[in-house]
Write a structure and sequence with these properties.
40% of the residues lie in helices and 20% in strands. The chain is an alpha/beta fold.
Length: 221
């Protein structure tokens, strides 16, 4: 099965627009110089984020978890001309690498890097976001969701990465496994939320797409 999955992944890579040179270099630099490089979005997920952003054409994007800036650069591509992406990263050691690549991407005017916890700082921006990408500490996902509900625009979208957590969501977590416990709590919160429509898309580690329901939604046949 593993062999087949790897072959399918290779096939998908071969039939997806090539990763651009800058992102490929960022991917490489992340693997060479940063701890836990697997956290980087990478080619396929990056392209998916880029496509979603092009489809939504957001004016304001909030990203929780800049890491080395890969997903921020991908998401920034779909912003409106006057749009802006605010990205938050708690680990200040990543700031220089991310800002170097953001500068080289040509999106310096559209991506604002913030160092510190998104939970503390994002509400201070006093903005409503058309797209929110949740990709920070898995133990904080329920808190991110509560905040995202406050900060999302009326018909905005929330994306949350790693919601299948390496398949652990279908096992019983140990009492000390706060990561799985909080991902499970987040997934249930979203599922029980009457304000949204949601779907888990099973690529990579699973990503939930969440759409705020229209106010006064009526069903017409
Ligand atoms: C999975 S990585 C993000 C990957 C990046 N979005 C990408 O796709 O390339 C998660 C990052 O979230 C950061 N983080 C954790 N808690 C945070 C918080 N409360 N606010 C902002 N960033 C946080 C971590 O330091 C880590 O760099």
């Amino acid at each position: 099965m593993l062999k087949k999955n790897t072959a399918i992944e290779r096939y998908i890579e071969q039939h997806t627009t090539q990763e651009d040179h800058l992102l490929a270099e960022l991917n490489r630099q992340t693997h060479l110089h940063v701890l836990q490089p697997r956290m980087v979005s990478g080619h396929i997920q990056g392209k998916i984020l880029e496509m979603i952003s092009y489809m939504i054409k957001p004016k304001f994007i909030l990203e929780i978890g800049t890491f080395t800036g890969y997903s921020a650069i991908c998401l920034a591509k779909g912003l409106t001309d006057d749009g802006c992406l605010h990205t938050f990263e708690i680990n200040d050691e990543l700031e220089d690498l991310a800002s170097d690549f953001i500068e080289r991407s040509g999106y310096t005017n559209k991506i604002v890097q913030h160092v510190g916890s998104a939970l503390k700082l994002a509400p201070n921006l006093n903005l409503k976001f058309d797209l929110i990408f949740i990709d920070g500490d898995k133990r904080e996902y329920p808190e991110y969701y509560k905040m995202a509900k406050e900060l999302i625009a009326d018909e905005g979208f929330i994306l949350a990465d790693n919601v299948l957590w390496d398949g652990k969501v279908i096992e019983t977590p140990t009492p000390t496994d706060l990561y799985t416990q909080q991902i499970l709590k987040f997934n249930q919160m979203v599922q029980d939320d009457p304000d949204v429509e949601n779907v888990i898309v099973p690529f990579r580690d699973g990503m939930t797409f969440i759409k705020m329901k229209r106010k006064n939604n009526t069903i017409t046949n």
